[in-house]
Structure formats: structure tokens, C-alpha cells
């Protein structure tokens, strides 16, 4: 059992081995919804009741964001940040090396992006079993995609539709593969597929990945305003 703490009124699970815990869940056929929570998501959940409910009901909530880690440290909890893209990639590689009996599903992003992401992993892990599709499907393609997921029964399903859409989609479709680990991965497919570049190591190691993302996508500045809001709320919050 993992230790559970709280960020505002949202659960966060503390561990030094999320990968091992999730692999155990997969090998024991235990369906799992994973949410990688950062400051932006935590603040969004204060206004979005549905998102808050998805987080509160998730089987695992991982601290993916320097703000969340600082919040925990202020309250005496020592926890390293775990980047969602790194956790997801580690799972893909671990299951991929186990071959065809551990199928993986990529769903989301723009047309062609998950194709390139899947090709990246296939080039280094020959036996990896990936099914993939983009996030702009319409009927009847969507119905056919759901049927494919039901037939294949992936062990790991990564969904890149953005927050909160990906969390809502996972909550509504877990019945398609009830024993899978489901993770919302945001823009990870864009990075794996070569559409975007992840921040250099210096930015990642010094809690500045948000700054590099703002440099890449200046239109995000309004969304970034939640970061100081999160910091102020963390100072005042007494829950």
C-alpha cells in the first residue's frame, strides 16, 4: 500500500517505485487508472467538478510537477517529481520487451503522430506489440476502434487527448479493457513522434520545464498564470 497525502482536497500517492507498483498491477491483471498531476491540473480541478472526481477516484495519482513536489515539501513530505512522460515510456519499454503477449495501445494526438511514436519504439524494441490511432476519429471509425481495443485487450493504454478530456475518456471507456493500466499522457505522443521537443535536461532538472514549454508555445502564457495562483493557494491552504 502506498502512502496517500493530499494536495488541497486531491489525493497524491507517495512512492519511490511507481514503475514497480504498476508492473505488479499489470502482471496481476488489476485494472488501474493513473493520473499524473501537476499544478495546472490541481488548479483546474478546483473549478472543474468532473475532473476533481476523476482524480479522487483514480487508483494512482503521481506528482508530475515541481509545484506539487514543493507543496508536499512544505508539509514535511519528501517526494521526487515523476514526469508522466518518463513513467509512461518506462512502462512501454518494460512491456515491449515482454513481447506480443503484452499489447500496448496509443490513442490521441493529431493524425499520423501516434504512427510515428509507435515506429520510434518498434525501431528499438523489435517484439513490441502496439496498436495505435489518432484522437480525431469519427463514427464509424470510432466504433471500430473501440472494438479493436476490446479484442486486443491491451495491458497498457496511453491516452493523449489533453486535460481534462483524456481523464473523462478514460473514465468512460475503462470497460473496454478492464484489466489494463490507463494513463493520460497529454502531449507525450508529440514528443515521441518528433513533432515537438522536450525541454533540455537542465530545464527538467531545475524545475524549469514549464519555462521551456512557454518558449515553445507562447500562447500558453494564460494557462501558465495558474502557477503563481497555485503557489499562493499552497501558502494559504490549511486543509
Overall description:
With 239 residues, the protein is of the alpha/beta class. The chain has one domain (3-236). Helix content is 49%, strand content 16%. The strands form two sheets. Strands 4-3-8-7-5-6 form a six-stranded parallel β-sheet, sandwiched between helices. Helix 2 (39-47) crosses helix 3 and helix 2 crosses helix 13 (226-236). The chain is globular, with a radius of gyration of 17 Å. It starts with a strand and ends with a helix. 34% of the residues are buried. The model has no long low-confidence stretch (mean pLDDT 91).
Summarize the helices and strands and which ones pair or pack.
Blueprint: E1 3-7, E2 10-14, H1 18-27, E3 32-37, H2 39-47, H3 49-57, E4 60-63, H4 66-74, H5 84-96, E5 104-108, H6 113-124, E6 130-133, H7 141-152, E7 156-160, H8 165-173, E8 181-184, H9 188-192, H10 201-205, H11 209-216, H12 221-224, H13 226-236
Helix pairs in contact: 1-5, 2-3, 2-13
Protein name: WecB/TagA/CpsF family glycosyltransferase
Keywords: Glycosyltransferase, Transferase
InterPro entries: WecG_TagA_CpsF (IPR004629)
